[in-house]
Amino acid sequence: MEITHTKRKKNLRNKIIRDVFFVIVSVGIIGVALLTGWIATLNLPDFNNFENRDISNSTKIYDRTGKIVLYNIHDNVRRTEIPFEEISPYIRQATISIEDAHFYEHNGFRPTSFVRAMLANLQSGGFSQGGSTIDQQVIKNALLTRDKTITRKLKEIILSLKLDAQVPKDTILQMYLNESPYGGTLYGVEEASASFFNKHAKDVTLPEAAYLAALPQAPTYYSPYGKHRDMLDKRKNLVLQRMQELGYITELEKVAAQNEVVNFDTDVSNSGKALHFVMYIREYLEEKYGADAVQNSGLKVITTIDYPLQKQLEDIVKEGALLNEKKFKAENAALIAIDPRSGQILSMVGSRDFFDKEIDGQYNITTALRQPGSSFKPIVYAAAFRSGYTPETILFDVPTQFSTRCDAYGNPKAGASKDSCYMPDNYDGLFRGPIALRDALAQSLNVPAVKLLYLTGLSNVVKLAQEMGLSTINDPSRYGLSLVLGGGEITLLELTNAYGVFANNGIYSKPQGIIEVRDNSGDLLEKFSPVQTEVLSETVTSLVSSVLSDNTAKIPAYGSNSPLFFGDRPVASKTGTTNDYRDVWVIGYTPSVVVGMWGGNNDNTPIDKKVAGLVLAPIWHKALAAAVATSSIEYFPEPVPNTSVKPILRGEYCAGDGIHEILRYVIKDNPDGEYPLNPENDSQYDLWETGLQNWLAKHSLPCNNIPVSNPIISTTTSSQ
Q1: Total Cβ atoms within 10 A of residue 489
Q2: What is the pLDDT of residue 707?
Q3: Structural domain ending residue among the three candidates 259, 293, 309
Q4: Which domain holds residue 390?
Q5: Do 177 and 187 form a contact (C-beta atoms < 8 A)?
Q6: What angle do CA 430, 433, 434 make, to 5 degrees?
Q7: How many angstroms separate the CA atoms of 716 and 698, rounded?
């Protein structure tokens, strides 16, 4: 009986166990089924082509070496993807040590870490512990929201398992290091390394790598520029401790790295370099590729900027402009340097200081329209030389009325007003009498220049200006004879580049700022190719360069110690000052570089009444000297001998019938051709002749056929 009772108890116990087991299994099956069904209803992100998904990358603008980053263009995210092998082993090891020590062992999810984090969160009543593997963090950063919910966490785990099954571990780590936040707009170790240490991610040291690994957990809190730098140092030391425990480094290496002082780049603004030029390039890129592509697709742009030279010239411009503000009330200056053989922009300084709000420093004067004053004259002289006039051609620098609506004495004719008269002065108020074109241009005399524009033809000058790249000088009907004195508006960039035609023996090169552009995969999108056109013959440009580099001819206007002179080095140059003293210019060149400068005030207020040779030439001299500092002395081609038949084109102004203006001896369009049959029919003939004969009546002029400089008559000041 006792045995039977025992059996019954045992059978009952077994039945209970079976029933409980059945219930547990049933509940488990139902639970799994319900969980599976719930998972099936989850809206999981698309995992296809995960490795090839588009992520935002910064466009980088470099100097001409491709090594110095001038600027990062980004839409709230500064990031540069790099391959696994370009990430320092120190960074990889440090990151694994602090973020996921078993990264290469698990399958994307570690239940023990997850449970440990959940228990910690239950105790704290929040989500302070993540327990996420690197795989999970990649998924969280790339595909999911930042919400801290059970649903999102479950999605994260499922996708992490899929990621680990489909993608190699090294690639997952590469993704993490390319996408992790490092503070502000910085994402990825390449951008962080460049910003903090001014180096590539492959070149960082062990302690630098430890700092980088310490940041992503809380980049704002641990910012090296914030108030918790001491906490960042502690976390860096923890990273090194973990690296030593995992066998990545030795005890000695750990101690040395913990004690090493690491300096973070103090330029926390990361505002960029050569910013006027950068914005000029950005405008071009956005016009060609679209703003979204420029901000997010990670273009690599190699520009033409010579950054060491750029930095020198920025300093020269700033120092000179600050001095000019005190001396001449000219608070701003701008500069362009161009290689005339290619059109490549070597330097662009748009103001004395990009960040100076008081002078509107971000406004790029190099691309702004300003009146050039007499710096436009070489264009007119080049057109004249192309037409057959010579540097020895004699014009008379005497008071001359040019408006046919007024008489030779400046009195308006019937129906005309006084304003319609036009009788220009020279910069110093003096007149020289007979003068060769060489001396007239070298000394920047106005009356001969206006006469030469008339002789050459306004339409011919405008046509040449267009051919030389002066896009705003495009309609002869908009201008009068004052064009030669700077009556049109031109940009410093275009006028400086136009002088490059003289430097490059008549070949125009379109100004360009880009050497190459590549996409984020390294594929070439565009490559520099010179855009060139023959505009003038070398015969003509050699004459222009000969005159503009003739220091002896310049002495009467600039003195013997002018900053326009460079000793044994031939340098051609021209100044310009507007009549209202709002703009001063100096542009000069050697065969290999053209440097143009502007000075004045952005608000168009006039400077003190001083000419460009005094205000701007000293700064320009320093700039051009810096540009040619490493170059050997170069020489311009020698001009061909003057073989003109007519005496007036050879420098002789006396003829058998007395002394007369050039209109008596030449047909404007063909000066070395036939003599005009009825020169008095020219609308300017009587005006010029009357002015000359009035001058001769007051001055004794020997008929020795030698061009003279004879400053006699004084009036008012004009432009130089």
Answers
A1: 14
A2: 46
A3: 259
A4: 373-487+640-720
A5: no
A6: 140
A7: 19
